[in-house]
Structures are given as C-alpha cells and as structure tokens.
C-alpha cells in the first residue's frame, strides 16, 4: 500500500469511528439543564487526537480533507438568528452553537446542555428565547440556561430538523418521525400524511419533516425528506410531488412573495415558484444555474435572495437575477442561510463559515461580501 492510499484508508477509518461515536453519544444523551456562565471562554472542539490538528480556536484541521479556513467561525454555518439583545447565534455542523454577544465569541455544545453538536436550525421567539433544532433533541436557551427536550418529553424523535413559530406563538417542530407543536408547555402530535412517491429517497429519515411554513392564507406546508410536500388548509391535505409538477421530491425551503407566489428551493431541481396551481421552474427553464438551491429570503429592499451551490448567490428584483460569487468577495460556493437583522446587518452562512453583505460597497462597485472572522468580525 503506497503512502497516499494509506492516508485515505486511515481517513476513512477515522470518519467511521467519529460517526459511530457521534451516534452513540446521541443515543445516550438525556434531557438536561445547564446554566451558562457569562464570561465562559471559547470552547475547544470535541476532537482531541494526534490525527486532527487544532486551530487556536479549537476547530479541527483535518490532514486529509481541508475543513479549516483561516479565522472561520466553523467550516459550516447552517443557521443564523439574532436575539433581542443583538447577539448573533450561529448553528454549526459539528461544533454546536456559536454566539457573539457584541464583545465575545463563545461556543456551546453538548457539555453545556445543547442536544447535539449538529445544529439544524435556530429561531428566536417573541420573548427573546432561542430555540435550537439539533440532531439530538430540541434545545431551549432561556434565562442564560440551556434545556434540551427529547422523546422523554414528548418529541416523536430526537432528530429535529424543522422549526416554525406561527401567529399564535405555537412552536412547530419537524422531526425524523413527523410533526409536533408546542403549546402551553406541552408537545402535541400533529399527524401529517406524507406524499406517496414511487421511489422515495430520504437522506436522513423515512418519515423526516424538514421545513415547515405557513402562507398568508393560513395553509401549512410540510417538506418531507425526499418525498415531496404536504399542504394542509385546515381541513384537508394535498400533495406536491414530481408527478404533479414539483421540480424535485427533495424540495423544501419556502418563501411567499408579495404577489402570493411560493418560492421553493430543492436539492436536485433548482428553484421554482408555485402560484395558482402551477409552477414556473427558473432553473430548469435556464433563467439561473445550479440545481442545489437553498434559503429563499427577502431583504429590507424587497429583493429575493437564494443560494445555488457551485454558483454563488442570486438576487432577484422581480425582473432580473443577479449572481454574486468570488469576484464579489464571496469565497463560499455553499451558502445555505440568510438573515438581515433589525440593525441592517446582512448575514450569510454556509460552507467556509459566516459572511456579511455590504450594500453600500456593492453600489460603489466594490467587493460587496466579507468573511466574518473569529478575531475581527466585522460584527457591528
């Protein structure tokens, strides 16, 4: 076996070992409450071995696959939220939750009460509390304390993927085994039939529900893992799949525009808009490139944004699509989340970490994206 082949073999063994350990840890995790100290130092990542080098901030540097970029928050930022205090919350792929409180960047993981180190979504409710969907439960950050909810507390499954807060302040939760909503401190099962497709291809769970959304007409939209979309109008269910026009059964990520159309992103079919019972497929019709799309978002100017992997991010003003990528300062081709906060800060997260969009720089013809680093931000 030559040296290169040996390294690859060792890497595969390590990945399998880490995956098994992660799964075991998830199975053994219990609901709990842990108070967070205000000035807790930056955490070191869980991986401690001679194989994985460490950056000064505890982010592993893999000898075989590059997962560290200088100064990054994490090699994947999966979700962004900003609380009432202006603190920026970031869900990472392996290192739990990162939070910048205006002065200090901190990391919180399973040791602090977070359900799992893989974070799928973060939402802040009307009270200012943060709800965190993890692969090991639903975690609440309230009164400077993390509390994790699991199947022992009423969840149908500990894999939590989708979160949505409706106008009645009920928290809807999409899990690996269906949907529940939290009301008055109790989880209530909500039976959602999944679409029937010929060859379902779930990536995480056969009954997994990811994105949950409610349109302005009051209809709920549930994205099933690799099996299409279920829509509930309050009395009946209907389904969208590839058979009746959906661009991809692995679709989810919803946004309703001012005209009432629903924009839908997908894993393999690009971006589409659904209105009056029919679809317009922007990717398949050649208006944009990139079949893996995510995170449809409207900014304060009324423009729609979405990401297309290996292409960059698109901005749509209602008439034309504008593509931003490396030449604009965006060094990531894997953005998966957007957030413009009440302070006008426009955040993007994904592969290679956290980024900011500078509207003024873009108007002046300058590079309009900047990477947000652990040391220098920019945070404010």
The shape, in one word, is globular
Which range best describes the helical content: under 10%, 10-25%, 25-40%, 40-55%, 55-70% or over 70%?
Answer: under 10%
Strand order of the largest sheet: 1-11-10-9-8
Mean pLDDT over the full residue set: 86
Please indicate the percent range of residues in DSSP E strands (runs of 2 or more).
Answer: 35-45%
Instruction: Give the strand tally.
Output: 31
Unreliable residue stretches:
1-31, 37-65
* Helix/strand class: mainly beta
Q: What's the level 1 CATH class of one domain? A: Mainly Beta
Query: Sheet bearing the most strands, described?
Result: 5 strands, antiparallel
Q: Could you name the key traits of this structure?
A:
four-stranded antiparallel beta sheet, globular, 380 residues, mainly beta
Plain-language structure description:
With 380 residues, the chain is mostly beta strands. The protein has a domain at 291-380: Beta Barrel (Thrombin, subunit H). It has helices spanning 3-28, 359-363, and strands spanning 33-35, 53-54, 60-61, 77-82, 88-92, 97-100, 105-108, 119-124, 130-134, 137-142, 145-149, 160-165, 171-175, 178-183, 186-190, 209-214, 220-224, 228-232, 237-240, 251-256, 262-266, 272-275, 278-281, 293-298, 304-308, 312-316, 321-324, 335-340, 346-350, 353-357, 369-372. Strand 6 and strand 7 form a beta hairpin. The radius of gyration is 21 Å and the shape is globular.
Brief synopsis:
The protein is mainly beta and 380 residues long.
Give the SSE layout.
Blueprint: H1 3-28, E1 33-35, E2 53-54, E3 60-61, E4 77-82, E5 88-92, E6 97-100, E7 105-108, E8 119-124, E9 130-134, E10 137-142, E11 145-149, E12 160-165, E13 171-175, E14 178-183, E15 186-190, E16 209-214, E17 220-224, E18 228-232, E19 237-240, E20 251-256, E21 262-266, E22 272-275, E23 278-281, E24 293-298, E25 304-308, E26 312-316, E27 321-324, E28 335-340, E29 346-350, E30 353-357, H2 359-363, E31 369-372
Antiparallel strand pairs: 1-11, 2-3, 4-5, 5-6, 6-7, 8-9, 9-10, 10-11, 12-13, 13-14, 14-15, 16-17, 17-18, 18-19, 20-21, 21-22, 22-23, 24-25, 25-26, 26-27, 28-29, 29-30, 30-31
């Amino acid at each position: 076996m030559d040296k290169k082949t040996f390294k690859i073999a060792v890497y595969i063994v390590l990945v399998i070992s880490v995956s098994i350990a992660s799964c075991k840890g998830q199975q053994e995790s219990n609901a709990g409450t842990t108070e967070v100290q205000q000035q807790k130092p930056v955490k070191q990542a869980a991986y401690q071995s001679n194989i994985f080098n460490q950056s000064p901030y505890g982010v592993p540097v893999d000898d075989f696959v590059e997962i560290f970029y200088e100064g990054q928050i994490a090699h994947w930022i999966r979700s962004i939220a900003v609380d009432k205090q202006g603190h920026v919350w970031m869900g990472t792929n392996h290192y739990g939750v990162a939070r910048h409180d205006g002065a200090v960047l901190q990391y919180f993981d399973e040791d602090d009460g977070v359900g799992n180190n893989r974070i799928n979504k973060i939402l802040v409710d009307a009270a200012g509390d943060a709800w965190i969907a993890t692969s090991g439960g639903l975690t609440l950050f309230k009164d400077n304390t993390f509390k994790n909810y699991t199947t022992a507390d009423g969840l149908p499954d500990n894999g939590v993927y989708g979160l949505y807060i409706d106008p009645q302040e009920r928290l809807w939760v999409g899990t690996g085994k269906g949907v529940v909503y939290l009301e008055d401190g109790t989880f209530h099962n909500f039976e959602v039939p999944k679409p029937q497709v010929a060859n379902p291809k779930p990536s995480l769970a056969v009954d997994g529900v990811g994105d949950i959304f409610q349109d302005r007409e009051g209809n709920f939209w549930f994205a099933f893992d690799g099996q299409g979309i279920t829509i509930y109008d309050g009395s009946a269910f209907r389904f969208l799949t590839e058979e009746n026009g959906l661009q991809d059964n692995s679709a989810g990520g919803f946004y309703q525009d001012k005209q009432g159309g629903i924009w839908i992103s997908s894993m393999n079919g690009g971006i589409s808009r659904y209105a009056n019972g029919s679809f317009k497929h922007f990717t398949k019709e050649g208006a944009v490139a990139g079949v893996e799309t995510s995170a449809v978002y409207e900014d304060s100017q009324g423009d729609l944004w979405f990401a297309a992997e290996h292409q960059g991010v698109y901005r749509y003003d209602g008439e034309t699509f504008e593509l931003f990528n490396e030449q604009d300062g965006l060094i990531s081709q894997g953005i998966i989340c957007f957030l413009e906060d009440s302070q006008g800060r426009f955040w993007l997260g994904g592969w290679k970490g956290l980024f900011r969009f500078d509207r003024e720089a873009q108007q002046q013809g300058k590079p309009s994206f900047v990477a947000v680093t652990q040391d220098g931000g920019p945070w404010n």
